[in-house]
Every structure is written in structure tokens, then in C-alpha cells.
Design goal:
The complex is a heterodimer of chains A (384) and B (243). Chain A is α/β, with parallel strands linked by helices and 384 residues long. Chain A is 39% helix and 16% strand. Classes of the chains: A alpha/beta (384), B alpha/beta (243).
Amino acid sequence: MSFVDTFNALPINELRRYSQNATCEDVERALDSQSLESFAALISPSADLEQLATVAQATTLRHFGRVIRLYAPLYLSNECINICRYCGFSRDNPILRVTLTTDQVATEARYLRNEGFRHILLVAGEHPHFVSNGFLSECVAKLRPEWPSISLEVGPLEADEYRPIVTAGAEGLVIYQETYNRSVYATMHESGPKTNFDWRLETAERAYLAGFRRLGIGALLGLSDWRTEAIAVAAHIQYLLKHCWQAQLTVSVPRIRPAAGEFQPLTQVSDRELVQYVCAMRIAFPEIGIALSTRETSKLRDGLIPLGVTMISAGSHTEPGGYTGQGQTDLHLTKGGRRIESAGDHATVQFEIADNRSPAQVAAKLDAMGYEPVWKDWDMVLNG
Amino acid sequence: MGTGKFASGELMAAALAASGAELVTVALRRADLTGGKDKFANILTFLDPQKYLLLPNTSGARTAEEACRLARLGREATGSAWLKLEIHPDPRYLLPDPIETMKAAETLVKDGFTVLPYINADPVLAKRLADVGCATVMPLGSPIGSARGIETRASIAIIIEQATVPVVVDAGLGAPSHAAAAMEMGADAVLVNTAIAVANDPVRMAEAFKTAVMAGRTAYEIGLAPQRREADPTSPLTGFLNQ
């Protein structure tokens, strides 16, 4: 048994219809219930957003107080063997690529440490040659002495492949299903190991088995109807809460951003709908973390903070070497997955960010809003 | 008092001062344990060791082994051998693991720590922990941050009645009246965090809790009137016999 079985049995279309037709009374009742049906009601068009926001804010305060955890992504590599139509790193995109050496990774990390970060998220494309398990373990081991908390966002691995990475000092694993709609998933992922929907869907469970303590999931918004995606994410959270009960769960709500390949979102999610999604997540799951990246504008990020967000990134770069220019000498252009020439002065980003404020500016804004920016909220000694 | 969830270190320090708290607990995972003075992990700098007895806690630990490791590193970093032992493997309800807590308490007491374990309101566990040398027991009123008050009243009453160590009612105290109730029951102290930290005015809420704790303690020392089902007339029907 895994979440795949639960997911296959999920009456997702019925829940989606219920969400569409839910009345104000259904929403009212859903405010203090944790069933999937209630979650569907919370995201319904008839919900009073101000009412949801009020409840979400009070819930967030009670569970998390007036603190926001800060983290930074560090891209190790933008090599990738998958063809994913929406992703800047897609194998068929002719972009400048590089994989940093562990020393270069350490230099980038030191820059982020000086900015204040103590929680780092190592991100890489999926490539068995450039981004091997051994490479990931080495990066984690290299950063361990200076980083209280290290998480990964990389291609899915077997539990046995995760274990050495956990032993090296990694604490969290982030894995987005991208879309929970099987047919859209098949269209979006044209080739590479990522075409295997079920394998990806079970990743969080394998990571838990391997000893990761924090699991992050989410859907990439803009590929399929957002309400259906939200219901599937909620079902996934419910499953993980029961089956991976010792894990701290985090959900992200990323919307597609402009990137190489010029992919245009297939569906739209308005700011208002994104706010409703965050509020519904908070009300239905008071104890889970909600992460918000620099994909969103400063205005929207600041507005969402009191409503349920618990961790944010700041001053992010989405390309390897983006913080300090590491890896420049090995930059190379690829076309159709083949290396054809060396050129350029920095690697191509995965997507454009929308909030360009520095970490210090974001921290000052949090302070002005009455929130403490928490840079360190974990210690490596807990990982063993 | 606890030190989590505050909007700033300054506000936390002001609320602590207003509360009259003597013992202050702080999550070791938020502090710099390397011996450096990390300005990005500076929660300890807001806590004056001259004013408060510092009680580092092991929040984040899921097993006895993790708690012991964190405790030892924390003792080196903070200089305090007092420890609030917290082991909650379930991040959803943060309920304490009795088995791992018992194991860790035995080890840490032998290791020279003054151990104050956070536990479910289990009278037998409380006795076992006192037997191995814990300095107090800290049973929960209701889950951390839930503000539901003392839902474990019957068990806490037994723990207090049987105690040979001080009893600190910890967690779930959402209103000053909850704290007063714990003190009226005979608890030696209460531990409050969320209710003060997330209040609209944490400093005044800290004062309110202080007043309530003192009122509850005074009432306990005097002895509360027994509760009755019927009204008890202030002019008894047989008063004429004394006239």
C-alpha cells in the first residue's frame, strides 16, 4: 500500500464538483472540520475570502506565533535528462548549463551564510551522471559543519539511495508532483525518468523511510485546474499525516513563472485564488508548514505572511553559481541534450523570480510587520 | 515562561519581565550551539541569566538519543545544567513520548543534569520519573498551543496528590483563569508561552497571568471552599438556636 492506491481510489471529480457547488453554509461548517470534503468547500467559489483569511490568521498565530523561518535555495546543477515542457532546465532547451564542484557549492553556501541563512535548500536537475547520489552526499557532508539545516530538492531516488544522504546530514526533502492530473502529467513530461507518475508520487514515503524528517510536497499551479490539484495535495497531506506521522510536512504553492522554453501556463490561478488556497490549507491543516518562494511578488508575499505562510526564501537565484559566479569556467551550451560549445558568463535560470528584495530587506519588512525573522530553527545535532 | 512565537526578542524580554517568571525555557535548536556568538541565532542574548534561571529545552528531539545529544551540546553552549526534557515525535500534536522520555531522563540525571520532563498527565509515569531523580514533573494540561486549558484535570490532581517533587503544569494554558485553576489545584508552578506570545499585547497579558498565578496560589494556601450542589444560605435555618 502506498499513496498511489489511495490516490487511485480518490473520488476527485466528485470532490471537485462538490467544491464548485458548495454553499456558504457548507463553507461555514468546513471551518472546523478536517475532512477532504470540507477542504473542497473551503476552496469553493462561494467562500467568503475575508472570513477564511480571519480564521487562517488566527490559526497560524496559535500554531506558529509571530515568527517566519527563512531559507535559501542553492542550485547545484541545471543539467537535466528530463523533457518537461514548463521547466527552464528541460533537456531540449538550448541553455547554458553547469554542475558546480563541491568546493564551488561551499563558496556559494558561504555567501548565503553571510547573508544570515542557516537553512539551505540544495536544488538540482535530474541527471544520473552529473547529479549522482554520491555527489549529493558529498555536497551535504561538505556543508554540514556550517549549516544547522540542509534540505534537498532533486530527482526522486530509492530509499536506499536516500539513506547515505540523510546520514551525511540532510534533514528535509522537497518533491513536487507538478500535476496530480495523470493525463496532463503525461503530456507535460515527454521523456526521461520523470515520465513515471507513480514513482514520483511515492517519493515522499520513500524519503520518510530513509529517515528524512521534513517532507515538502505541492503542485505546480498553471498546469491543470487548481481546485482539483489542491484537493489532490490535501489528500496527499492527509495520507502522509497518518503514514509518515513523525515527519514535519510542508506544502508549497508555486505558480509557473516565465522560463526558457517560453511555456505558457495552461490554466490561470489569480492572486485571489492563490490566497484562498493558502488560507484553506492553513485551516484544514493547522500544523503543517507553508512555504512561499520568490516566485511571487513582494506585495503578495507580504500580504500572505500573516495568513498562513511559515517559511519564505529571499534574495534567491535559480541558477547554479548565481550568488557568487561559481562555475563560470565550465559553462556550456546544450542543444537537444548535447553539449555543443562553451559560451556565456552565467548559467541559465530555472525560472525568473518576482521578489528581488535582499534577505536583509525582507527581514526588515518582517520586523516592521510584527514578525520575527527566524534564521536558525534547527540544529544538526538532532540529525545524528 | 516559554520564549517561542514572539514577534521580537525585545518584546519577549519585556513580557518576561512583566510576568514575574523565575524559570525561562528556550529551544536549544534556535540557539547557536557552536560556541560562537551567531547574531543570526541570538535568542539567548535576550535572556539575562542574572534575572532568570535558564531552562534550555530539547524540543525537536524525537528519541532519547537525540535529546541526550542536544542536551549535552546545550549544556556546553549555555552553561546551564538545567534541562526541560521534551521528546515529541509527532509534530502534529507535539505530545510527549513517555518511553523515550523515561529513557532519556535516566541517562541525563546520571549525567548530572537537573531534569524537568514534559509529560502527558500520567500519574505512574510521574512517579517513575521522580524515582529516577527528576527535579520536577511537567504534565500537560492540553496539547501545546491549543489554549484548551486543563483537560487532564483528574490525572493532574492525582499527580499533585502523590508528588514528592514540584509539579509544573505545562502546555495548553490559554487564559489566566487556566493558570489560576492549576495553581488552585496545588500545582507548584505553571509554564505559559503561546497565550502570552501571540496576545495582542504580550506584556499586559504576561501581567494578567502573573496576577492569576498569584491569586491561584494564595487561594490554594488558604484552602478553597468545598463545592456543593445546592445553595448554602448565609443565614442558616437553625441560626435561631444561637440567639
